[in-house]
Request: fold
Amino acid sequence: MMLFKRPDTETLYAALVAKDPAYEGVAYVCVTSTKIFCRFTCTARKPKIENCRFRETIAECLEAGFRPCKRCKPMLSYGAADETVASLLAALEEDPARRWREDDIVALGHDPSTVRRAFKRRFGMSFLEIARLRRLGDAAESIASGEAVIGAQIDAGYESGSGFRAAINQFFGTSPAAMKGKGFLKGAWIDTPVGPMLAVADDHALHLLEFADRPALPAELKRLKTRTGADMVLGRTAVTETIEAELEAYFAGRSANFETRLAGHGTAFERDVWRNLRAIPVGRIVSYSSLATSMERPSAVRAVARANGANQIAIVIPCHRVIGADGSLTGYGGGLWRKRWLIEHERRMAERLAREMPLAS
Reply:
């Protein structure tokens, strides 16, 4: 979905020596002489180039046997929002209909090339591309709700009607006239301590919540489009705001309660598995076999495991709380390192919440 073409070792090493913050969260250095991995901005003494192995994700570092550095704490900083990225995304939310240009970026005190690199590495597209897609998404939604095509064209900043039609066709695979009465899902990125997540929602429910680097995410989005018959545009809804607030409370350790309404995807069996997953108390873990037994389906362990893997609402439907019968973490679409992190985070949260709970009289 969002591909990052890694520069050569010499370029990465130069960035490491310079403590270049542009590589925060998109590349890490594994040091073979100490078996630790660090952020590019780590203040520790820099290793020799022959002792450096560069990786794109924390998962790759952990799976290769490297431990997180205690000085720069890469596990805790992963996904932290770049200040430039955060400020420009906030500006886009304030004025999504604006036809952004490089001059606007300069006027806000940013260097266009730095902004371009930061957005490309984080999202796989530039800020101007994101802004353009946002305008097109809003225009498509206006057309679908009945607004005249010419009005949507003007609002999107297109002087040429043919250019607007071509842009809509390229993005949605259909003409503006064919979009009348069509519904859309809105996708937005949400930053978390363990990496950015993509939330897809409409005005009524949350359809998908996944980590942005999940390998299966493109296939999930395609499947979601097929199920709903709706295209996805960049944007936020009230549902997005609700889940973002609930995730903030979750990662702060204040609450593991999620009240956001979920869309009813999946088969009847899958939905039954997901209901049982949500019934697992925070701080607890269960095996696939015990989950199947609790559902009075002791022979359906493999089917339960498949339904667990088909879940596309991460954290809210806590499939990370299920482990192998031998105590192994087994598979997790967001990466085993995240599964370990979430389980440990919830263990600490449960202990703290239990301590703070008033004693029964």
